[in-house]
Amino acid sequence: MMKINEIKEIFSQEVVEKEIIETLQNDERIGVKKILLSYNKKQEKKNFLKKEYEKKSFYENKCYNNGYKYICGVDEVGRGPLAGPVVAAAVILKQDNYFEGLNDSKKLSKTKREELYDKIKTEALAYAVCEVDNREIEKYNIYNASRVAMQKAIEKLSQTPDFLLIDAMPFENYPISNFSMVKGDEKSVSIAAASVIAKVHRDRLMEDYSKKYPYYDFENNAGYGTKRHLEALDKYGICPIHRRDFEPIKTIIQGGKNEQRKK
Fold first, then answer.
1. I want to staple 92 with a disulfide (CB 3.0 to 4.6 A). Which of 82, 126, 191, 235 is the partner?
2. pTM of this prediction?
3. Which helix (DSSP H) or strand (DSSP E) does residue 23 occupy?
């Protein structure tokens, strides 16, 4: 008879042989029953996540069935912040890719996002990222800057896509066939993958900016108008990455605080 610690070791593996599970189901030891219960719950969760992934592959599968081969998900992050760039990502997944737990990046923990970020970069067929900075946002306006970032990300891909799935941004008269959907990062695995790549990239970028401009808590707010960020703006004025046509930045500039003051 196997010891409890030996059974724990076996069930710590990703896959457990069916014969072992069937044999242990007749084991009356409480410790074994707990191990089996825990294992069954994990398997149920894995099966649930697998089914959810399959549901979110609906649009990709429809494209494959219509003869498209390189389906690209496109998403952006950073429309709302008061500082920093808007960042877009374009991702072409392989048809047999599976990323457990993939979802809209905003619904994932930081740990899960970063885990998926590394996995997507390693296993996807192709991905690309584009940043459009605050000066360009002022030039184009935030909506058009987001579109520019998305299209530049697509152009940077090492593999040219033949169909685009885009989050909430219509691409009329674009040379690549495409479909835009609201909340696409919740409905399409390709768009969800792009949202993860874009968000992790931008969050890390804002963490780097926080070292250069330490007053604004960019490492925690990613440029959004949190209380601490607004207090720093009132005390120190703006810094070079603030979006000068966004409120309340515009009001601060009009009040004469158009440059970051020294400590």
1. 126
2. 0.90
3. helix 18-24
